[in-house]
Structures are given as structure tokens and as C-alpha cells.
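Side project, low priority. Logging it here so it doesn't get lost.
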Amino acid sequence: MSPPETVKTDTAGVETPAAVSVCLEVLRKRADFLLAAKARRQGTKGMMVQGRKREGEGIRVGFTCSKKVGNAVARNRAKRRLREVARLVLPEHGRSGWDYVLIGRFEATAMRDFSDLQKDLIYALRKIHGEGA
């Protein structure tokens, strides 16, 4: 069951949904990851981001790190950081009806400053959406 929609009205009388109402759905099926791999991609120092427009509403996101990132501890740390960055950035900069896959990079994802990781994701999203840098 989805959370109830809340609506904010600004001083100009324009109604916009509250940021709290934006829920991220996690990609779990291999087919969704494969479809994203065939779509747009943008690399940054901290991660690789793949994005694709799909039918439907909501933002879906997946996370992956290969064994090149390191052992299980290193991969899990990188994925935890990617999940937190996505939680903070995607509700504001992501688009409804899009799937995103965040791929960790060797050492960079786990060691990069967290604010730089956020900037990396914002930059990658702008490029994927065709908004330039």
C-alpha cells in the first residue's frame, strides 16, 4: 500500500506534492538491470549511473558492485553509500517514470567524500536527462 499523497500549496497558489510522498522502489529483477544497461549511462569519479525511461510512475533504483570493487565487506560498504546518496538525491533530482542503476567503482565509491558522491550523482542525472552539465 502506498503512502497517502500530501500536497503543499506555495504562496502563488500552485499545488506540488510534498517531497515525503516520493518513494524509491528498489530494482530486484535481473531483467530490469539488463534493460537499464542498454539505456543511457554516465560515468563519474565515484560511480557509474545508468538510466532509462519506462512506462509507469515512480522512481526505481538498483545498486550493484562487482568483485572488482573488493571483497564482500568493501562491496557492501560501497552499496550502503550508494543507497544513502540515492535516498538523498533522487527524490529531488530524479524523474518519475525512470529506472536508475548505480554501479560502484573500485575504491572510489567507498573512499570518496560523501558530498562529492552526491555531486557526482546530480551531475550524472543531468547528463542522462539531457540537461547538459
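Brief comment: Residues 1-6, 17-21 have pLDDT under 50 and may be disordered.
Revisit when time allows.
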